[in-house]
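[step 3/7] fold_predict: job queued, chain A
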Amino acid sequence: MENALDPTDHIASSASGSMDRFDRTSIALHWLTVVLIVVQFASMWVRELISHQSHLAELLLFVHRSSGSLIWIAVVVRLIWRRYFAYLPPFPSSMPNFQQLAAKANEYGLYILIFAMPLTGIARILFQGQPFGLLFWQVPTLVEADPALHGVFVRAHDIGATALMVLIGLHAAAALFHRLVLGDDIMQRMLPMGTGSRLKSDPAE
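[step 4/7] structure written:
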């Protein structure tokens, strides 16, 4: 996939010496997605600790569904931005090919799962044959209840959640490995503006 960058962004990046970083929009969308994913998992983990018949459980389920929808929107925007506008810094020349391939496989896997998970989640709700709240809408019953299909999407959603946690763990571990063991700037490329420069100047590096 070719890198894309608006000419004005290119000038600004060159002037600030930050061409080794992703563009600001990509960084913002990345961390927005991270926050929404944390909300997703936290809402379900907390819900499992309380009675599913409580008002708090209903609220947590609404938050989970709504944040899932926002994640889907965010990932679509990210993919469009990445394809047509984003600046994607190349891997360091010292980075072995197998590490580059592993990084790309992990990244594409994350995109696929983050895109698919909200869809399986909505499908499992739809085939319950009941109305449900989503963001600002109360969605009416759209299809008749189908226990078999509902079960398929429940299982798909659960498997996807597990796979997503594994890939996120690998992604985070790889970033820390590059920072703490290899001592390169891979992790700083996606950190918010200012954070990367502070880490780079850390005398412990």
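[step 5/7] annotate
Residues 1-19 have pLDDT under 50 and may be disordered.
The chain has six helices and two strands.
exit 0
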